[in-house]
Amino acid sequence: MPDRPAEGLTDARGPLLPGFSRRDVLAGVSVALVLVPQSMAYADLAGLPAQYGLYAAALPPIAAAFFASSPYLQTGPGALTSLLTLGAVSTLAAPRSPEFIALAGLLALVVGVFRILVGLVREGRVSYLMSRPVLQGFVTAAAVLIVVSQLPGALGVTVRPSGLLAGGWWAVSHPARWEWASLGLTTVTAALVLGGRRIHPLLPGVLLATVIGIVYSVLVGYSGPSIGAIRAGLPPAPHDVPWSSLPLLIIPGGVIALLGFAEAASISRTFAAMDRRPWDPDREFISQGVANLAAALSGGFPVGGSFARSSLNRMAGARSRWSGAVTGLTVFAFLPFAGILAPLPRAVLSGIVISSVLGFIRIPDLARLWRLSKPQALAAWSTFSLTLVLAPRVDLAVLVGILLALGIHAWREMQVRCDSWREDAILHLAPRGVLWFGSAPQMQHSFMRELEEGRHVGSVTLHLGGLGRIDLSGALMLREFREEMTAGGIDVTIVGVPYHARRILGRTLGWEPATEDAPADEP
Question: pLDDT at position 15, please?
Answer without folding.
Answer: 52
